[in-house]
Amino acid sequence: MTSLPVTVRSRASRNRFAAIAATTALVLGLTAACGSSGSTSASADSGTIHVLVYGDAGNTVEKQIVDTFNKTSKVKAVLDTIPGADYQSKLNTIINTPQAPDIFFNWGGGSIAPYVKDNLLLPLDSMIAKDPGLKSNFLPSVFNTAVIDGKSYGIPMRGTQPVLLFDNKQVLASAGLSVPQTWDDLLADVKALKAKGLTPIALGGADQWPTLMWFEYVFDRVAGPDLFQKALSGDKSAWASPDSVKALGMLKQLIDAGAFGSNFDSVKFTDGGSPALLAKGKAAFELMGSWEYSTQQSGNPDFAKNDLGYSAFPTVSGGKGDPNDVVGNTNNFYSVLKKTQHPDAVAAFLKLMYSDEFVKAQLGIGNLPTTTNTANFLATSASPAYSQFQFNLVKTAPSFQLSWDQAYPPAATTPIHTAVQEFFDGKTDANGFIQAMQSLSNS
Amino acid sequence: MTALSLAAVSVRRRRARRAGVGVTRPGFAWAVPATVFFLLFAILPLVLVAVLSFTSWDGISSPHFNGLANWTKLINDPVMTQSIWLTLLLTVLGVVTQTPVSILLGVWAAGPQRNRAVLSAIFFVPLLLSATAVSVLWRALLDPNFGIPGQLPWLFGNGNLLGSQAGSIAVLTFVGMWQFTPLHALLYQGGARAVPQVLYQAAAIDGAGTVRQFFHITLPQLRNTMITSVILMVVGGLTTFDTVLILTQGGPGTDTTVSAYYMYQQGFKEFDFGAGSAIALVLVVVATLISLAVVRITGYGKMSSTAEGI
């Protein structure tokens, strides 16, 4: 499970990590697992800026960048980490106190919306006006995730994690099937695989967020990104639109065709259940974030090397969405607190996020940065073909939709997860789902 | 009776009275540390939670009062009503499943058999594991494809244990039983050891077999232990949280969202501490009422020894 990549994709999985971390700690008898490395010194110290980051294996790069910055800067940067599982709740408790950092890691979108609303964050537009590179050096579809009400609040700082359709090449070959290009192909594949007694698509339904990925893609393919954006900005009628009903009908058709088997609600991705289905040939497909690759690499190295296929989500004929659109985690971001004493030093620090050194270091630990110069270094990545595929996908995508549960503020996460799970296990119908989504609070 | 012995009795009485006064009425000062701690760490937070339940607070900006908004929302919230019933159901199921097993195990473990100590030590292992570890363990064991259900399709069907309400409740009950039975068996073992042997010897002379001895001596003698154990189970059941968090996350849908988990969800996942506090307060009131009822019904408050001649 620690094989998940550095950027954990959802709040649900973060909580899961809390559980695992706590278990590990208790089993080993370490009672003080958390809170050992939180930021303790006040950031108002003269001449320092505090950088608060999600604590995990990716911190080596952040440390390296801070060291590089400190070599030339008079104002020194201090890197603080909060162990991953507790990041969001601990950040929430310190962000409006004197212990708050100057710069902090986040997921963009809904994860910073409450702070923007409480007027805690510094819009970066004046920094960008001085140094346009702070915006132009990043892929626009990614950069836009941290734009709220027309103002920029975040600079991308780790790797992108688009959602891809993974497959088991061997299973497809032995069934005489190919990777589905269209929705109809997918339905045909499902039928053929079902006839062979396989679960066509592995789904970690108990985690709930893997189920959500199906909604995100089908809605985008059918209606384009506008439907969700409208709903997110408060126009709740979007959920009841004909496109929304059509997308739900397609999902229902896929579920009723037995695409996910009958016990997906007892299977998790986070404990290795659904990846094992794919790796052991019991299922042919899994829709998952790009971290599936590293999960399989550590859990089933032979499978990852020989038989793990990946492709973009199938197209939907007659759909309004661009077939090149992707959904997932656009990236992680550095945001800046308004109260920082050293905005110039902060700007200089953020500039490093598109430096060659940063890109090379991120690629070295398996992350795929989203700067325009990333393309020059893709050959140096651990798995160049996979990196190249993802980078092209993200670069050509007209829209990169942030996962719904992260685009909405935290208060909506549980209701969204409940709604998608109940729709998939047949407890609610399309109308019930529409009502649940309409009752979400978007501020 | 001689005058001497009368005098001796009266002296003894006077001493007894004086000693009695000293033992039963210690000064209030002795209770101060405990009282201060209780006020500081139990009553004060409770009052703060009560105040918070009338506010809207995201944990970042300062809380502001929103009157009865949280409460009206809560009263009309079907998930809240359901969560109370679920909590009660899990509590009852816990008591009903754990009590018989732990009585039998405990009484058995109190006996003089060979291997008893070794086997008892093994039975008590779940007690040493944290609830989180237990839940993660069972989560993996119950995986429908690669766990036990995958091997026994005749028993588990498609293995979708955590995909239905009945299945999830059964799993939660079972895991709770696996985890907590050792603790209660330990209580019953202690209780059974304290039953005077003379009772069994007398019964044996009267011709009572093992089964009759169990029902007519052991069980009645274990009455107070049973009350203690049931109260512990009720309190534990009402605050069930960790197993739900890891095994079901309140799902499928909201089918196993018990009150404590719902409170956590509102407070620490959705950062709506006002609503979370309101749920917490409901939980406190419900749990207090139930505890009072249990104490009243069982006579826990005036518990006295039932052993002959003691």
Automatic annotation (TrEMBL), chain A:
**Segment forming the signal sequence:** 1-44
The protein's UniProt keywords, in alphabetical order, are: Signal
Q: Which SUPFAM superfamilies match?
A: Periplasmic binding protein-like II
Designated name of the protein: Xylobiose transport system substrate-binding protein
Species per Swiss-Prot/TrEMBL record: Streptacidiphilus jiangxiensis
From TrEMBL, chain B:
Database matches in PROSITE patterns: ABC_TM1
User: To which species is this protein native?
Assistant: Streptacidiphilus jiangxiensis
Similarity annotation:
Belongs to the binding-protein-dependent transport system permease family.
User: What coarse category fits the chief subcellular location reported for this protein?
Assistant: membrane
Transmembrane spans? 27-54, 84-110, 117-141, 161-180, 226-247, 273-295
Which top-level group of life is the source organism from?
A: Bacteria
Q: Does the keyword Transmembrane apply?
A: yes
Q: Give the record's GO biological process terms.
A: transmembrane transport
Entries under InterPro entries matching the protein: ABC_transporter_permease, MetI-like, MetI-like_sf
How does the protein's chain sit in the membrane according to the entry?
Multi-pass membrane protein
- This protein's name: Xylobiose transport system permease protein
Q: Which UniProt keywords apply?
A: Cell membrane, Membrane, Transmembrane, Transmembrane helix, Transport
PANTHER family hit by this protein: ABC TRANSPORTER PERMEASE PROTEIN (PTHR30193), INNER MEMBRANE ABC TRANSPORTER PERMEASE PROTEIN YCJO (PTHR30193:SF37)
Against Pfam families, the record matches this protein to: BPD_transp_1
Subcellular location, in the record's words?
Cell membrane
| One cellular component term from this protein's GO annotations in UniProt | plasma membrane
The ABC transmembrane type-1 domain covers 84-294
